[in-house]
Fold these 2 entries.
Entry 1:
Amino acid sequence: MPLLELRAVSVGYGRNRVLQNVNLTLERGEIVTLLGANGAGKSTLAKSISGLMPAEAGAILLEGEPIETLPPAERLRRGIAHVPEGRQIFAGMTVAENLALGAYASPDADKSERLEFVWALFPILRDRMQDLAGNFSGGQQQMLAIARGLMSRPKILLLDEPSLGVAPLLVAEIFRLIVSLRAQGITILLAEQNARQALSIADRGYVFENGRITLSGASKDLLNSPDVAERYLGMGSATEVSGAASAALAGRLRGVLFPDAAPAGGAST
Ligand SMILES: Nc1ncnc2c1ncn2[C@@H]1O[C@H](COP(=O)(O)OP(=O)(O)OP(=O)(O)O)[C@@H](O)[C@H]1O
Ligand SMILES: [Mg+2]
């Protein structure tokens, strides 16, 4: 049984259908990435899982149990933590207060142990517990947001664009951290516009286009095309020669992620 399963989930804002008929699974211990252009529906999907947006139709199963009607706090208690796009940390509150918010649904007994856990991951937080979060850089705020998410001892961490507005050096650190969280048994759903970096650490990916999944598969299959690797994902020359199927898949991926780019073989760059 998958850890999380979405079956034919549809979500909308008013009459505007944002997600249509989404089927998606997360197996224990995976990093799964959601890719897609601006407005494709990645954040809406994360919100529908954490409960910030109600599903209008379909089912969301956590370890086989339907959760789609549960409020966000109950989903958090059951192990789904959401690190939202734009971080949403409280700039006027201290690091300690921000972290405490992440543990609000947890028993008190767990809290000091969880602090030790996040301090081990982010030593800077231990030293700056009484600092205002607003004094942190973008990358440090992102780390604080992730740490806050980890305070509830989640089974599933929903990470929405953790690289957004973060300096490149810290982006690399955040991606390394995500890999280490998987090694500790946390299952991760990673929404990213940075397709190359996301696919390089993910086990599988889903590509969204106008609220529908148009492509999904193993990360290596999504990446495994010299054309995509060289022209669009900035990986330099590719070493593997892909088969026809993976080249076709990669061509679709390119079309979805980079709709404005010149077609393969086109003259303009
Ligand atoms: N609060 C809202 N009210 C109405 N429509 C919204 C709202 N938030 C998002 N939408 C619409 O829902 C669609 C999907 O948005 P969503 O934020 O899920 O996309 P996204 O893939 O996360 O995009 P981005 O890469 O820009 O973060 C867009 O068409 C957007 O205009
Ligand atoms: Mg988004």
Note: Residues 4-223 form a domain with the Rossmann fold fold (CATH 3.40.50.300).
Entry 2:
Amino acid sequence: MFLWLRHEILLQGLLERLASGEVIIGDGGFVFALEKRGYVKAGPWTPEATVEYPEAVRQLHREFLRAGSTVLQTFTFYASDDKLQNRGNYVEQKISGQKVNEAACDIAREVANEGDALVAGGVSQTPSYLSCKSETDVKAIFRKQLDVFIKKNVDFMLAEYFEHVEEAEWAVHVLKESGKPVGATLCIGPEGDLAGVSAGDCAVRLVKAGAELVGVNCHFDPTTCLKTIKLMKEGLEAAHLKAYLIAQPLAYHTPDCNKQGFIDLPEFPFALEPRILTRWEMHKYARAAYDLGIRYIGGCCGFEPYHIRAIAEELAAERGFLPVASEKHDAWGSGLAMHTKPWVRARAQQAYWEKLVPASGRPYSASLSKPDSWGVTRGDKDLIQQKEITTENQLKEMFEKQKIVSGM
Ligand SMILES: [Zn+2]
């Protein structure tokens, strides 16, 4: 009986699961997590670890699955051919985009089959778009990844991390060719995309392009992302359009961000740790997202498996079960009742952790930073793609510009 039920769950696709009222839980930001483990280089942020260190990618998928993820995204972030051969990153020549994408699909499927998770084939923004290449050229880049996703039969498609809705529309058009469900998330805040399109209009355009699931990922903290998704929801309602909503924010607090998001924070990417959300803050995010009507709730950069577990634990009553990893985590710190020290046993209660305002431990640390705000985006000469490594002169020019902008 149990096996039969499990089989039936496996046969259900994303849209059937969402239509039945199931809350889908996403996974976390692989590039950030694997960079910290030593398998991804900050800078290019490309996922050749799928070929070089498949066991590291497999293990992270397993940890997210165990923590409660019902979707495993293929580790194909920035795995477009143009990104794999950008600024001295010669992955395309050394390994090939096809191999990186194929390995990502195989690993995600292998682990997804260990539970009842779905596999999402993901594409993201391209240097070609930022370099003002044509719609035909940019679409051809996405289509190469899509060919692999179709061959490997992923369950649905996700276009994520787009700063410009126009490029996301192009990605959705291409992904729709698969006939599978398509989700689209922009990495924008409440101010809208980098071309000045409002969040509401972005959502409308993505649904009109064919996306069944729309929302935001990356670049901003959960609070800001939910504000943006609320605007998207209102835009869709005003246009009498329907779509499922998806949130995959950062696990970093970013109230001081401008339109460009956490990339502009001076701490990006090597000193963001003081901003990490606690598991208890993730409970609040999960509840707020659920109350807003979002039914695909996950994370992006900064998310570790324990953050996803917190989402699954907060929504355990709605979903009807706890994740496997809760075997080692009793609700709201109650496992501390087993602690040796009495004052720690006194913390084995929800009221304690819910009220706690954690200290930073940094006596000279400011609460907020001033974003860089260079205002550079698509069409700027400094964003043009080049295959060759960044030269010393090009770097010097950037160092000088930084001095002027920051007033040093
Ligand atoms: Zn991210």
Note: Residues 1-8 have pLDDT under 50 and may be disordered.
